[in-house]
């Protein structure tokens, strides 16, 4: 399929982006290609790459906001924020692999830090995008608080380029905690994992991340805050559950590996599922039953990732999910399909220039 | 839409009554009068009837009836909207959701609650409290406002910088759309798959339909709070202190400022005591595990000490903390006592331009001879200028509105917003084009049409247009006079 597709268009400004969208009857946006399944549609659909739409347009640390072009690599943003002691608290994944800001929005992906203050949807403030008729529009706002107009920026989160092409995005950021500490707590079985999610999530510690490795099995906790406070908090956690403090180097490598999905088989399939914590034992059982499958549990049991080697089927899990890499259906589980979705698609893209939600090349 | 309504009102009402159990449709003049206005008392309209559904099915039936008859309807909770968002349509239907007030599920392990739209905001926290949890969004009207209204207008509160607005706490929604279609989006998971339909629905200002069930995330209640009140000789010094706190890397739960006029009123109304000689008071609240707050507090103390305050008063116990917040949250209705009428504005400016914005507002206030007090969420640049006028005085409302308009345009010019948390509603609809281009407004209108092709759901709100209800000269909302709610 890729071999048959023409080279992508590479607009270098927002006006050129709008012109590129208008130039072809069928269009899909692509970023760095780290979640290729989202854009795996028919060869007749022209790729519009954001590779040249890169750079931070505006960053005011005192405002807790920045605006960047959609093709800006996450690692550039993470570095710029880090210089001012700030960060995107949801730890956008795949920064090391070169993922772009726009692709992360289109995929709706958040990393381990989303446990504390919420996911990507909770930090997006405004978008400039090109609609299906090639108009460059700005909706949402550029300040941390805004309630004017419908919340189209949020709607774009996870929309996989089906309703418009993102050109520029404004985010809220937070000051980064002074120090982080990672704790690894082994558990005997999955049920204990779920109980720890419930207890740790409701505790006074205000954890920064709460994740689990279903294969070990072990729960990984992260605390963030002033150094003086963390020893006491960690001590209290260990008094409740045995475990170890992970040395800083190892912890950094661990969280990078999670954010980069290093645990997933190379060249295979990777999918994200929305879970409720109570579903975790069944999800882990489904993982265990699928030959070669691996997985990870994030956000205190609210998200599950599953991966398998090339050619192998994903675990038989009936819940809602999205395939990020590899073959298989883009949308997994029973997605809601109601009349108003078609009407909204027609409102944003009346000529069907972008693929439909169900037009997934499969 | 009023042209399409009701060739024969009596026949329409008869059909509506036949559809629902007895007692669900109110049409007596005295009954309707109670629904004529909301928190924006300057506007009033007389609806055709009020429907009081007791079940979700009855609410769905009422909406489907309106769709079939192309009859305008306005959903209403407790009617505390400050943007006129629940002002009725003349000759339309008001669907009041107060009796759909069940908490359907509260799961402490997963920290979610599923509630009907008529549940009071504070009732969610009350139900969650035994588990050490709370519902974070805290608009000042939280003791009476409903979750359905919070969802429709994406309500805010004093803790938005750290915790976000209503939309950041809504995980899922079941709604009846203006077309009569019933949809369910999202659910108990904090993650979402596919486009964020729930996110799009929250803040629709009643133009898409009516939420019937809302899934909310609950958060653990902070273990300890450290609340400090600092007095300054000038507003600018208070603003500089905010900048210093923000630059320090601290993330307070709330950063609020009250100006001299607001302080004077709060002192008179709730006997709040403020340091003498202050033109502004800053309130900063830290919260979290005790060890974290203890460490952060040392930094905050140092920052405030260096900010040349007249006095710094940390709350020594829970009672003192509550007293600080009581003064703050009552400030607006307290200022209202100084004047028979007032307009609450809700603009946002970039935080670094707060001082500049306040200087301009103060100068315009003098120039136009309109008194204006300021209470605002300084942490997120959300201004709440309170513009005082006497509706009985010829031209006073017009002058007050002129000042309000200048302030909103200033917010847009500075790169901010015409509304931080009250919504556009009826009040600010003429300013939407200041914030968005004609093509952008057209995009928003197409989205509205996708949900509501007949424009029957809360028509006349958000978008500029004819047909504003009559202006009245009412002063305080009855609940404000009783001290039950406050505007913010």
Describe this structure in words.
The complex is a heterodimer of chains A (362) and B (488). Chain A is α+β, with helices and mostly antiparallel strands. Chain A folds into three domains: 176 residues, Uridine Diphospho-n-acetylenolpyruvylglucosamine Reductase, domain 3 (2-Layer Sandwich), CATH 3.30.465.10; 81 residues, Alpha-Beta Plaits (2-Layer Sandwich), CATH 3.30.70; 64 residues. Chain A is 26% helix and 25% strand. Chain A is built from ten helices and 18 strands. In chain A, the strands form five sheets. In chain A, strands 3-4-8-6-7 form a five-stranded antiparallel beta sheet. The mean pLDDT of chain A is 95. Among the domains of chain B are: 118 residues, Uridine Diphospho-n-acetylenolpyruvylglucosamine Reductase, domain 3 (2-Layer Sandwich), CATH 3.30.465.10; 110 residues, Alpha-Beta Plaits, CATH 3.30.70. In chain B, the strands form five sheets. Chain B has a seven-stranded antiparallel beta sheet, with helices on both faces. In chain B, strands 6-7-11-9-10 form a five-stranded antiparallel beta sheet. In chain B, strands 1-3-5-4 form a four-stranded mixed beta sheet, with helices on one face. The longest helix of chain B is centred in the C-terminal third of the chain and has 18 residues. Chain B starts with 8 loop residues before the first helix and ends in a 7-residue tail after the last helix. At the A-B interface, β7, α5, β9, α6 and α7 of A face α6, β10, α7, α8 and α10 of B.
